Amino acid sequence: MAVTDLRKPINPVRAIGERIIQIALLLAAAVSIFTTAGIVFSLIFETIAFFSEVSIIEFLTDTEWTPLFANQRFGIWPLVSATVLTSAIAMVVAVPLGLIAAIFLSEFANDRVRRTVKPLLEILAGIPTVVYGYFALTFLTPLLRNFIPTLSIFNSLSAGLIMGVMLIPIVASLSEDALSAVPNSLREAAYGLGSTRFEVAVHVILPAAISGVIASIVLAFSRAVGETMIVAIAAGQNPRLTFDPTVPVMTMTSYIVQVSLGDTPYGSLSYHTLYAVGFTLFLFTFVLNIFSYWMVRKFREVYD
Amino acid sequence: MTIIHEMDRSNPNAIEARNMSVYYGSFRAVKNVNLAIEKNRITALIGPSGCGKSTVLRSFNRMNDLVASARVEGEILFHGENIYAPGVDPVNVRRRIGMVFQKPNPFPKSIYENVAYGPRINGWKLSKSQMDELVERSLRGAALWDEVKDKLNQNGLSLSGGQQQRLCIARALAVEPEVILMDEPCSALDPISTLKIEELMFELRQNYTIIIVTHNMQQASRASDYTAFFLMDSDRAGQLIEYGPTSQIFQNPKDERTEQYISGRFG
Q1: What is the mean pLDDT of residues A115-138?
Q2: Which of A241, B123, B201, B254 is the most exposed place for a label (fewest CB within 10 A)?
Q3: Domain spans of chain B?
């Protein structure tokens, strides 16, 4: 009998099928990479086009943003201040409430409560943001006006507060995962020294899980910076450099919505502003991510 | 809240279990244990896997409370007070009956902070120098000081396994307990580290009562004063078979099952 040829496939069809699947998988992975690269490149190109007409110094030093008016001014700070203000208000709500919820679920609640409450909390994250936006505009703002009569119809306070509510499940759910991942041996060690539940949670478990907790907070902040519908509906359309939470403002995302909805001609200067603002937004989240990476490494308490 | 009385000198026992049974849900894991642990002695709990020796140990400082389904019947007396009586705060029990676990479990903090943790949460108002002193005393007590005195700010997890376990002992000593429970403290350690821990136990015995669970019979025979032998009964509940001075249990056991176990015929 002839020597078996090891190079000859036993089943040629199977070998070809294997090859096709490999290529399909590679293509699927490549799509997301090319899309990301495409977005970044188009942002950069259009942003360069913008800066060929407007000086970067004006962009960074002017305090007015009026690209759609006759008297065009291109200072980015009014949009940045509004984004920072609404996001900061949101974090004031989301971080404490989210962390308390996470600590309760991970360290105090029994299994049954945890299994019921966590999915319920995550439903909050499934509510469309447009619903949150109208909730802020038509419910929270009128309510707050009972206490703050000078509050404008559109304001960053109620937009920020509602955005904070939207972000609670992100902080709570991801922090809970980080807290639960801390090995039980550390809990036993702490209880064995006569710690109360609260001391175990705050002095041992939270520090051990801090990198995951910080990651959840930064992710929530990134979401706040990029959040569009709530601020577009409830925070107003008035670019102004202020940190007063009671007056209408315009965030970077609100501006993008405004221009996209309007009849801005393609290729015009006001069209290019979209990309300049978009690029600033991108830089914001990019820096946030690097910052969180650094924080996580700096504060991580490694166990095992 | 019940106040546990100050050290009662006339009572030779540190802990006394009276007709104690432990349940996990409806399953009885340990039944009808009567056991008196003498002060300033090392008592070893031995027996094959599943005989309930760890469950008994964990009942002594209410660590089983952390398991939602666990329930203890009978009494465990500490200074004449049942630690399972209504109103007794398990936190207070654990502050006076410390524990060292099977796997070294230092906190992911510095060596210094590991030892200082207990006194801090206990709310002891110590100056910096008093705390330094307490940390040094505890680390010396755990025979670890000389190895770590120059790197107290390093992470506790950077130490070797044996050093980590001694750090855990130092951490337990820092809150000045009366009793130290050790749940197979050497099972994750090499022979040299094991020997160090055993030598350490003999030193600690002057000031503390030590109860150790071990599956290593040589360890029980060379490193304990008293030995309690547990075995699983036909209903799968662990029970105390024989209890006495270690020399008697290992050289002249009264129960046939003890004799079979220590001679290595099962388990």
Answers
A1: 90
A2: B123
A3: 13-262
pLDDT digits (tens, 9 = 90+) for B108-126: 999 999 999 999 998 888 8
Are the Cβ atoms of A185 and B105 closer than 8 angstroms? yes
Cβ atoms of A167 and A222 within 8 Å: the answer is no
State the CATH architecture for A77-299.
Orthogonal Bundle (1.10)
Phi–psi pair at B257, nearest 5 degrees:
-65, -35
From B159, which residue of chain A is nearest by alpha-carbon distance? A304
Residue A2 in this model has a pLDDT that exceeds 80? no
Q: How confident is the model at residue A68 (pLDDT cuts 50, 70, 90)?
A: confident
Which residue in B226, B149, B145, B211 sits closest to B178, CA to CA? B211
Superfamily per CATH, domain B13-262: P-loop containing nucleotide triphosphate hydrolases (3.40.50.300)
CB-CB neighbours of A242 under 10 Å = 16
Closest to B241 (Cα-Cα) out of B226, B256, B230, B225: B230
pLDDT band at A72 (very low <50, low <70, confident <90, very high): confident
Q: How far apart are the first and last CA of chain B?
A: 43
Beta B209-213 vs B42-46: how paired, if at all? Answer: parallel
What percentage of chain A exceeds 90 in pLDDT? Answer: 62
Contact A80, A280 (CB under 8 A): yes
What is the count of residue pairs from A and B with beta carbons less than 8 Å apart?
76
Find the CB nearest A303 among B118, B157, B175: B157
Nearest residue of B to residue A205, measured between CA atoms: B107
Q: Specify whether the CB–CB gap between A239 and A66 falls below 8 A.
A: yes
Rounded to an integer, the average pLDDT of B217-243 is 92
* Res A207 pLDDT > 50: yes
Nearest to A245 by CA among A231, A259, A255, A258: A231
CA distance B259 to chain A (A): 34
Q: Check pLDDT > 50 for residue B5.
A: no
How is the beta sheet containing B42-46 ordered, strand by strand? B81-82, B70-78, B13-24, B27-38, B238-245, B226-232, B42-46, B209-213, B179-183, B97-100
Using DSSP, how many helices (H) and how many strands (E) does chain B show?
10, 10
Task: Measure in Å the smallest separation between the Cα of A185 and chain B Cα atoms.
Answer: 6
Amino acid at B62: R
Extents of the domains making up chain A: 12-53, 77-299
Express each pLDDT in B172-226 by its tens digit: 999 999 999 999 999 888 888 899 889 999 989 999 999 999 988 889 999 999 9
- CB contact under 8 Å between B107 and A111, yes or no, is no
Question: Which among B117, B169, B173 is the top mutation candidate for probing chain A, defined by the most A β-carbons within 10 Å of its own β-carbon?
Answer: B117
Judge whether residue B9 has pLDDT over 60: no
Is the complex ipTM more than 0.95?
no
